[in-house]
């Protein structure tokens, strides 16, 4: 699930247009865009004009009949998503609901310079979208209620996308107050022997900020879930200054129980930061122990797919990563995204180039999820595949495919040295179990045995039997060539594996 439905129809169409062009290497023609966006030519042209006028992060230009996205060198696609969140009235209202400073729609509309009717309509959109995950919109004051971990995680995802930079930005605090909050989180990590990695600091700072607002407005995490007794609290001047900050900015006393509530990720064992913490969870948290055992089983099976299995330490680390991602959700719940679908986009892109490998991993995840009724919703499946394949960057080289090698014949009129260089580039850039025979290096007439090869790569315009698998490539290996060769090698490997399984 994601919250893209909160965007207006025009903003959602603009976002889709930008994503289509960003994913395209060379650009897309007008007809393709009209078909994908399901709009008319005047609407498309007006969308392009508005996108170019409303921001300077990226511009859409037309070159040789293709619409192309030109990003600023200093900008990333993350900034585009952040810009959509900032400009969307619906998401401005969504953020305002965290602070609960408006008793009625008229007050909220006045502060955001919106009409009352539009504000009411936007609130209904928010109410409908969040109902899917069990979160309700309440009035007097306007607020969100439901499972506390779901609401806090939802706002964490929102702030992470809106404030995409490495630098942390907390909207309602001064720079001095923000620095005190960050220092307190770092002191908390240091006191408990946790590494002060940026990703840990980032996640805990935003969650602390969100939790303080929720506590201020009397939304507390269940005490019975905050059962980790092995965590120590910071002391000294940092702790004293932070207590003063909480009283000044949030108007409540920051006692031990509120500290546990605000650091709920650690006190509820939803975030594992080191092996000592893991050992305590396995000893004292039955739910955590059960989840970790299932994750270990998944990781072990994934490791079994690799030609070089993961070490014991690597398996534990990967199991912790999977648990940190999923534990705060209900096992039969929904994985919630805001606008960015980066995990899905990544897995889909990988599947286009390495379909058989991705499908094997996806099937493995699906089997575990189904058998244990464990995070089986499709977005969870995709996320698990994402974490597995990103943990092993060269998984394409290591995954076990067909035991039979794909035989490739390279035919060209290049010099022997140039052909050898081309063959070496193919070997380096294409993943799979294959071997290349170079026509220029062959000791006998390869044409008499050409049918013995699974794939023919040629730089020439040869007339060969239609039954042969032939790809025409450039004398230099272009990105397009790499994509086509990888796609064909993956397809042939999959066919060989299926045939071998049928025979056995």
Automatic annotation (TrEMBL):
Residues 75-159 form the Mga helix-turn-helix domain. It comes from Candidatus Enterococcus myersii. Keywords: Transcription, Transcription regulation. It comes from the Bacteria. This is Helix-turn-helix domain-containing protein. The keyword Phosphoprotein does not apply. PANTHER family: CRYPTIC BETA-GLUCOSIDE BGL OPERON ANTITERMINATOR (PTHR30185), TRANSCRIPTIONAL REGULATOR MTLR (PTHR30185:SF18). Pfam families: Mga (PF05043). The keyword Transcription regulation applies.
